[in-house]
Specification:
Layout: E1 4-8, H1 12-24, E2 28-32, H2 35-43, E3 50-56, H3 66-73, E4 78-82, H4 87-94, E5 100-103, H5 108-122, E6 127-131, H6 135-147, E7 151-155, H7 158-167, E8 171-177, H8 185-192, E9 202-207, H9 214-221, E10 225-228, H10 233-258, H11 268-279, E11 286-293, H12 296-303, H13 305-322, E12 327-332, E13 335-341, H14 345-360, E14 363-366, E15 369-372, E16 375-380, H15 386-403, E17 409-411
Parallel strand pairs: 1-2, 1-3, 3-4, 4-5, 6-7, 6-8, 8-9, 9-10, 16-17
Antiparallel strand pairs: 11-13, 11-16, 12-13, 14-15
Helix pairs in contact: 1-5, 12-13, 13-14
């Protein structure tokens, strides 16, 4: 179901811009020009249909933020827009339980709105751990984080915080206070970095200590950022957003580096990295298969390279479906590779046969042309020589499959 964004705005030009931005973000704008109209429309909807509300601070029937209060009381994450930039208005707005406020000073602030909307949706899957021995401080931070739809976790000291991290893989960011009983914040960060890299877990150190060297000590111990107490609302969220987005950017770069551009499957580089890591755990049983499309040159020559690319993508979808529990990759050209760990060789053979038959029975249609596609497969469970040795043996079996008539699995 497409999520809605409630807009309460009486300026037509501003409403027009926000409607376009929200629609472009894949959300459905529900446009109202007054508090009265917003109450009427919202009463006819379920609150869970809405991602958030974007509310003007001053409206003809709500001149002093009453529309903001309505939105918050309706349990909607609320973004405030305002024509006024004075400190008094800003302070009034920030005292309310809002997500953020946006002054209408230039076109760039509306781009910030787009960024906020995207974050509110993404944050629903992101866990943030707050480790602080003060319940008051923990509650204050988790309350702010929940306004942005983060999943929140709390711990009163380092040891329990580490346990929470180990038990919840969705935690991407930890906010750690320095002064705690037992293990200090600096010691906890140092301990965490033995397990979690800066690419996997963001850490923000926090302290009321005004020692100018403490922030540097946090960074040197493995923190990504540092906050002084007391912090203001806006700085807190800016630091949180920057650190979460940094992790997402790293993940994007990692995914691009490890993915095949055409099929979206893991690439050869990722395959070797993954298999070598698994082999270090010394699995009891291993198998490796190389899959090659039969007569692929004929497909390209007869129907064109676009059809060849289409065939590769369709095969990749089948590879992703049948080998989701194993390590699979596009190896290059028309070759794919699959690695099985702690799986009996007979079971690996059965899986490969099911895959081969599924492709044999699948008819591809490209620009009204019907294409039948088959594969030859070489499979081995001989582990001598590591992953490279297994590839050489599987490759020899693949050539045997090709020479023996294609569309078959040859194994040890």
């Amino acid at each position: 179901m497409q999520q809605k964004v409630l807009i309460i705005e009486d300026t037509p030009a501003s409403m027009s811009v926000m409607r376009k931005l929200i629609t472009k973000a894949g959300l459905k704008p529900i446009c109202t020009s007054s508090l009265f109209e917003a109450k009427h429309i919202f009463a006819e909807s379920a609150p869970e249909e809405y991602l958030c509300a974007v509310v003007n601070y001053s409206l003809p029937d709500a001149p002093s933020g009453q529309a903001i209060d309505f939105s918050i009381e309706s349990f909607l994450p609320t973004i405030v827009i305002t024509d006024s930039l004075d400190d008094e208005t800003r302070i009034i707005i920030l005292k309310k339980n809002i997500v953020d406020y946006i002054p209408k000073e230039n076109a760039q602030v509306y781009q910030y709105l787009t960024r906020l909307l995207a974050r509110l949706d993404k944050n629903k899957k992101i866990g943030v751990l707050v480790v602080d021995d003060s319940r008051v401080h923990r509650s204050a931070m988790t309350s702010l984080l929940r306004r942005h739809n983060f999943i929140t976790f709390e711990a009163p000291e380092a040891e329990s915080g580490i346990k929470v991290l180990h038990s919840n893989s969705n935690i991407k960011l930890a906010i750690i206070d320095e002064n705690m009983p037992g293990m200090s914040g600096l010691q906890m960060i140092s301990e965490l970095r033995k397990t979690y890299s800066e690419e996997d877990l963001g850490i923000i150190g926090i302290s009321a200590d005004t020692n100018s060297g403490l922030s540097a000590r946090f960074i040197k111990s493995g923190a990504n950022d540092y906050l002084y107490k007391p912090y203001n609302h806006e700085e807190f969220f800016c630091r949180i957003m920057q650190n979460v987005e940094r992790l997402e950017n790293i993940e994007t770069i990692r995914r691009v580096a490890n993915s095949d551009y055409l099929t979206g499957l893991p690439n050869r580089r990722h395959f070797f990295t993954r298999v070598e890591a698994i082999q270090k755990t010394q699995p009891k049983e291993q198998s490796l298969a190389i899959i090659d499309i039969d007569h692929f040159k004929n497909i390209n020559d007869t129907y064109g390279h676009d059809c060849g690319d289409y065939s590769l993508k369709q095969l990749a979808k089948l590879v992703a479906e049948y080998f989701s529990d194993y390590t699979a990759a596009r190896f290059g050209g028309e070759e794919f590779c699959v690695y099985f760990s702690n799986i009996p060789h007979t079971e690996a053979l059965q899986v490969m046969e099911k895959f081969r038959l599924a492709l044999e029975q699948k008819q591809l249609v490209f620009e009204k042309q019907k294409i039948n596609c088959t594969v030859s497969i070489g499979l081995t469970s001989i582990t001598k020589g590591g992953v490279n040795g297994m590839i050489r043996i599987a490759d020899n079996h693949l050539y045997s499959a090709k020479n023996n008539g294609r569309n078959q699995v040859v194994t040890d």
